[in-house]
Design a protein that fits this description.
Layout: H1 5-45, H2 70-81, H3 87-97, H4 104-110, H5 118-125
């Protein structure tokens, strides 16, 4: 029996996600090795140091377009100036202020790595199965 296009699409997406997980596992292993080297160095200089008491530091992914806190301030300013403004209008205004193209022809070229493809996201929300996974909206990749 031949597979439907839905099943073959789901299998392809599963294979893609499994590949991402495998790559992330490799990266996690490399980070664990680095951490063990740092732990060993700490133990050299302070043998009685309690390494479990050192809390992990939260990492922050930096935006290519906005400085720390700038995007939040701009959004709040837009909401104060125009209380009924939509999310799309806010996003367009912020991108325009930062000089990022908002026309459909060049949006894909200007996106940050990991940005969601808005057209695919909207198609998926509207129930168009062709838009769900054909682009970057499915997993934000």
């Amino acid at each position: 029996m031949s597979e439907s296009h839905v099943i073959s699409g789901l299998k392809a997406k599963r294979a893609e996600i499994a590949g991402h997980i495998r790559e992330l596992d490799k990266q996690a292993k490399a980070w664990r090795v680095r951490l063990s080297h740092i732990d060993a160095s700490i133990k050299l200089f302070a043998p009685d140091a309690d390494l479990t008491a050192i809390k992990p530091k939260r990492t922050r992914h930096k935006s290519y377009y906005f400085k720390h806190g700038e995007q939040t301030r701009m959004i709040l300013d837009a909401l104060r100036e125009r209380p009924g403004i939509t999310a799309t209008e806010i996003a367009t205004a912020l991108l325009t202020l930062k000089g990022v193209p908002t026309d459909p022809e060049t949006v894909g070229e200007a996106q940050e790595p990991g940005a969601i493809d808005a057209a695919d996201f909207e198609a998926c929300r509207a129930g168009d199965a062709g838009g769900c996974g054909g682009g970057r909206a499915a997993m934000g990749d």
